[in-house]
Design a protein that fits this description.
The complex is a heterodimer. By secondary structure, chain A is mainly alpha-helical. Chain A is built from twelve helices and no strands. The radius of gyration of chain B is 19 Å and the shape is globular. The chains are: A mainly alpha, B alpha/beta.
Chain lengths: 267, 259
């Protein structure tokens, strides 16, 4: 296997493994749109990194963490206005990012790579970011698993039982921002929320416990990475969209597989 | 009352969205007592519970809790997203490490043992009330705060639940503060009644409330001639699973005696 393909595989796997449990929380807490909005804002980070000659992942991580803090009050409210407000912010920050990039003189960052990922060009530094950041988030999720689950089920009951709800909600938001920053190289900002949501949604139908769903989402995500990169190598399609398309195919297969045994039983 | 003070609100006011919901409200819950909160819809009953639990901060006044108090809270309703695969047993265990040993004991106490392996989303409204009560009991609370525990239950189910609640309170000796619309429960089970309509209209022992105009105004049909818990005999009872239990001689109902 050529080294770039091996690196791409390692990068994709690293992101898929942590995206499983994190994506499960995104699905359970209906934060998909929030993640998407955050991802749109990441383009500002890309532009800032290029302007200041800072490592792109670091710049995106910092900007995403700040945006996550600013957007947090929006995630809390369940009012009608919440999704409209997120929609405004998503497109506005994407536009600002595009403008910022156009203003850069000299070597501009690769826009297509930022939007759709460039996993075949990951460096060893990228791999260190992905596995380091991924391991940190994975460990935090594991350490806080029960209280995170408790506040997902009912924030009121969790608070009465002494769970630090506000801090944990903040932590979860920051974890999404960090994973976004390290995943940018793999799927790009436009496809980021798909990587969180699709494997978790596919795992739902096959799971009886939250833990099963989280781990299965990791496994399905890893499978999608193998499928997408394989297709990319064989039939020369772009890798990031290939991975997401593979995940969507798995999702569709799970839905179909659920229908089959039922119709067999009825026959 | 000389018993230990568990929870109290001292002249609190709460405004939500610019609208005053509670003004100058004081309540207290002591160890071992049952306090019922009654009042018309929109009177601020749930808001008062939430302020006492520390879920919302009052705009004025003070809420106090005995240090180290373990609380059990049963909210009015809980709907769980279909996307989360969670059994009733796991839902109970989410109460935390304090709880782990007691899941089966609490399930037996509340009559939901047969539900433990079922997805939470598949429980009926009445079953969910019992599940929420069980969750509130998981941490062996010294104060139980219940927001309309009898809703979604038919008359028989309500009566059964309140008999059960009474037994739980006697066994555990915890203080109970609950919102209820059931006059018979108020009369039969409460040590103290608080009649709330944005402010405390009246408060006192249930039998002392009968002549209070603001209390009577809550029951436009008038009070029944006599209010007392009574025992009557069914020729059969029902197990929590719904099976007929022919060994049960009868069970207590809190209800009116008809003159």
């Amino acid at each position: 296997m050529p080294e770039f393909l091996l690196n791409a595989l390692l990068a994709g796997m690293g992101v898929a493994l942590v995206a499983g449990p994190l994506g499960a929380f995104v699905v359970w807490r209906r934060m998909a749109f929030f993640g998407d909005t955050l991802a749109h804002g990441a383009l500002l980070g890309v532009a800032l990194g290029a302007l200041l000659h800072v490592d792109a992942t670091l710049a995106v991580a910092v900007v995403s963490l700040i945006l996550a803090l600013l957007f947090l009050p929006l995630e809390r409210q369940r009012a009608l206005a919440a999704d409209s407000a997120l929609g405004v912010l998503a497109q506005a920050s994407l536009s600002l990012g595009l403008i910022a990039i156009s203003l850069i003189e000299g070597a501009r960052p690769d826009l297509l790579a930022a939007l759709f990922g460039d996993v075949l060009a990951v460096t060893h530094a990228d791999l260190a970011w992905i596995w380091g950041g991924g391991a940190l988030v994975f460990w935090l999720l594991l350490a806080w698993w029960r209280p995170l689950l408790a506040l997902t089920v009912s924030e009121d009951i969790a608070r009465v039982e002494g769970v630090p709800v506000v801090r944990l909600r903040l932590a979860l938001t920051l974890m999404i921002a960090l994973v976004l920053a390290v995943a940018l190289k793999v799927v790009g900002l436009l496809l980021f929320s798909a990587l969180l949501v699709i494997p978790a949604a596919a795992a739902r139908r096959l799971s009886a416990t939250p833990e099963q769903m989280a781990l299965l989402a990791s496994a399905l995500g890893a499978l999608a990475v193998i499928g997408g990169l394989g297709a990319s190598a064989v039939i020369d399609i772009p890798a990031g969209p290939g991975i997401v398309a593979a995940a969507a195919t798995l999702f569709a297969l799970v839905q179909l597989a659920r229908l089959v045994p039922r119709s067999v039983k009825q026959a | 009352m000389s018993a230990e003070l568990l929870l109290s609100a001292d002249r609190i006011s709460v405004a939500l969205g610019g609208r005053s919901v509670l003004s100058d409200v004081s309540v207290a819950l002591h160890a071992g007592e049952v306090v019922t909160l009654i009042g018309p819809n929109g009177a601020g009953k749930t808001t008062l519970l939430r302020a006492l639990l520390g879920l919302i901060a009052p705009n004025a006044g003070r809420v106090a809790m005995r240090p180290g108090l373990v609380l059990g809270y049963m909210p009015q309703r809980l709907t769980l997203d279909e996307a989360l695969p969670l059994t009733v047993g796991r839902f109970l265990a989410l109460a935390g490490p304090l709880a782990a040993a007691g899941t089966s004991a609490v399930a037996a106490e509340t009559g939901i043992t047969h539900l433990l392996d079922r997805p939470v989303q598949s429980t009926s409204g009445g079953e969910m009330q019992r599940v929420l009560l069980a969750r509130a009991l998981m941490r062996a609370p010294q104060a139980l705060v219940l927001d309309e525990p009898g809703q979604n239950l038919d008359a028989a189910g309500q009566a059964e639940l309140f008999v059960q609640l009474d037994a739980i309170r006697k066994r555990r000796g915890c203080g109970v503060l609950m919102v209820t619309h059931d006059l018979h429960v108020v009369m039969a089970a409460a040590d103290r009644v608080i009649c709330l309509n944005h402010h405390v209209c009246c408060t006192g022992r249930p039998e002392a409330m009968r002549d209070h105009p603001e209390f009577l105004a809550l029951f436009p049909q008038g009070l029944p001639d006599a209010i007392a818990p009574y025992l009557h005999h069914h020729d059969h009872g029902h197990l929590p699973s719904g099976e007929v239990d022919s060994h049960e001689a009868g069970h207590a109902h809190a209800g009116p005696t008809h003159a």
